[in-house]
Specification:
single chain, alpha/beta, TIM Barrel, 6-stranded antiparallel sheet, globular
C-alpha cells in the first residue's frame, strides 16, 4: 500500500464544550464548530458563544489539535459587515475558517485568515479545486458526490489539500444544497435552518382535477390517502467509511471529516475513537476486516441511521435510503442523575440519582464541559460504610471513578 507520509487528520464535530472535550480526549487532530450565525447549523443549539471560543481554542492548542470555525451558509448583502467582524474578532483563536461564499473567501484573504472551502460549494473536479487554491484556499472539502477514484485523481492533479466526509448523516440533495425545508416551512437549509422534512414519513393525498383536496369518489367524506413506502423515501442512510478507511488514506485525503455538530457527546467520542484507531492501524500495518468490523460495532452503539458507503463506490449508489425513521443505535441512553461531589484524593464520585436506578455492573457515561465523556462499568456501590447493590430515585451512592466534576450528568447505557 502506497500511503502518504502524513496521517490524515481526524476532524471531529463539536456542538458544545462537552463534545469538544470528548473529541480531544478521543484523539481528534482537529475540531470544527460554529458561533450561531452564518453556518449550516445556525438553527440548532449546537453552537458556541463568542465568550466560549477563547476557552475552546486554549483546549485545542493544549491538546495539539487545530480549531476550524464554520462560516459556510449563503450570505446576503446586509450580512457582509457581520461576517467581516466575525473573521477579524475570531481569527486569533482559529486555525482556519470553513467558507462557501466567494464574499467570505475574499474577506478571509483581506483579513489574512486561512480558509477552507466547504462542501457546500460542490467542488467535484481538479480544475475547480486548483482554481480555489489560486483564490487563496488552503483546503477544499469535496462534494460528497465524488467517487473514491475521482477523489484520488483530484488529490493528484489539483495541488491543494483535500478533505472528505467519512462518517455521519448525508443529505438527499446535491452537496446539501436543498430547498425542501424552505418550501415547506420557510426555513432554508442553505442558511443553517433545515427542519429535515426529508427524514419524515409521507402521505399521498388525492385531489380533484383543479388540484384541490376533496372527496373524489362517491360515498367518501374525505380524499383517500396512501402511505408512501418505504416510509422514508428521501432519507439517506448514514455514511460509514470504516470498512475501506485504508483506501481513503491511500487516496491522499488530508482530512477525514466526521459529520455531527448537532449530535451528542457519546457520538463524538465513539466516532472519533473509531477513526483514530482505524487510521493508526492503517499506518502501523494492523488494519484489516476484523478490526473494521469491531470498530463498526463500536459506532453502532451511538445514534445512527442505517449505514452505507455513500457514493465513494459509484453514483447514484445502490441501496442509499433507509427504511427506518429512528436511530438504529444498539444502545439506549437513560438519564440517571448528576455528580453531587467528587473526592479528588480518593478518586471517588458521589452520584445523586434523579431518574433511572444505578446498579453495580451497569455501564454508565458521565458527561461534562470539562470532563468530556467518561465511560465505565460501575464497581461496587457504597453509601457511607455500607456496600449497596443499587441506588434508586432520590438516593445517592459513591464509587471509584476517573476524574469527573460536580454537576456532570450521569447516564446509563442499556442494550436494546
Amino acid at each position: 500500500m502506497n500511503l502518504p507520509p502524513r496521517k490524515p487528520e481526524i476532524l471531529a464535530p463539536a456542538g458544545d464544550m462537552t463534545c469538544l472535550q470528548a473529541a480531544l480526549d478521543a484523539g481528534a487532530g482537529a475540531v470544527y464548530l460554529g458561533l450561531g450565525a452564518f453556518n449550516m447549523r445556525a438553527r440548532s443549539s449546537a453552537n458556541f458563544s463568542a465568550e466560549e471560543l477563547p476557552e475552546a481554542s486554549r483546549r485545542c492548542r493544549e491538546a495539539g489539535a487545530r480549531l476550524y470555525l464554520t462560516l459556510n451558509s449563503i450570505l446576503f448583502e446586509g450580512e457582509l459587515a457581520g461576517v467581516e467582524r466575525t473573521v477579524r474578532d475570531t481569527r486569533r483563536f482559529v486555525d482556519a475558517f470553513i467558507v462557501s461564499d466567494l464574499a467570505a473567501m475574499r474577506i478571509c484573504r483581506e483579513c489574512g485568515a486561512a480558509f477552507h472551502v466547504s462542501t457546500q460549494m460542490s467542488c467535484s473536479n481538479s480544475v475547480a479545486a486548483a482554481a480555489l487554491r489560486e483564490m487563496g484556499a488552503s483546503r477544499v472539502v469535496l462534494a460528497r458526490e465524488c467517487t473514491l477514484a475521482e477523489v484520488a485523481e483530484i488529490v493528484r492533479k489539483s495541488g491543494i489539500e483535500v478533505e472528505t466526509f467519512v462518517h455521519g448523516a448525508q443529505c438527499v440533495a446535491v452537496s446539501g444544497r436543498c430547498f425542501l425545508s424552505h418550501h415547506a416551512y420557510g426555513k432554508s437549509a442553505n442558511r443553517g435552518e433545515c427542519r429535515q422534512p426529508c427524514r419524515r414519513e409521507f402521505l399521498v393525498t388525492a385531489v380533484d382535477r383543479y388540484g384541490r383536496p376533496g372527496a373524489v369518489d362517491a360515498g367518501r367524506d374525505s380524499p383517500p390517502e396512501f402511505s408512501v413506502g418505504p416510509h422514508t423515501v428521501m432519507s439517506a442512510k448514514d455514511l460509514c467509511s470504516l470498512p475501506f478507511v485504508d483506501k481513503l488514506a491511500e487516496a491522499g485525503i488530508a482530512s477525514f471529516k466526521i459529520e455531527g455538530r448537532a449530535r451528542n457527546p457519546e457520538y463524538v467520542r465513539a466516532t472519533t475513537l473509531a477513526y483514530r484507531r482505524a487510521v493508526d492501524a492503517v499506518y502501523d500495518g494492523s488494519f484489516g476486516a476484523a478490526l473494521a468490523e469491531e470498530l463498526q460495532r463500536d459506532v453502532s452503539r451511538v445514534f445512527h441511521r442505517e449505514f452505507s458507503s455513500g457514493l465513494f463506490h459509484g453514483r447514484p449508489g445502490a441501496d442509499q435510503f433507509t427504511d427506518k425513521e429512528d436511530s438504529a443505535s444498539a444502545v439506549v441512553k437513560r438519564h440517571v442523575g448528576i455528580v453531587a461531589d467528587y473526592f479528588v484524593k480518593a478518586g471517588i464520585a458521589q452520584v445523586q440519582v434523579q431518574d433511572a436506578a444505578l446498579r453495580t455492573g451497569d455501564t454508565i457515561q458521565i458527561h461534562g464541559a470539562s470532563t468530556g465523556v467518561v465511560e465505565l462499568k460501575v464497581p461496587p456501590l457504597r453509601r457511607d460504610d455500607l456496600e449497596i447493590a443499587s441506588a434508586g430515585r432520590g438516593e445517592w451512592a459513591t464509587f471509584p471513578c476517573p476524574r469527573v466534576r460536580r454537576g456532570d450528568k450521569v447516564f446509563k447505557l442499556d442494550e436494546r
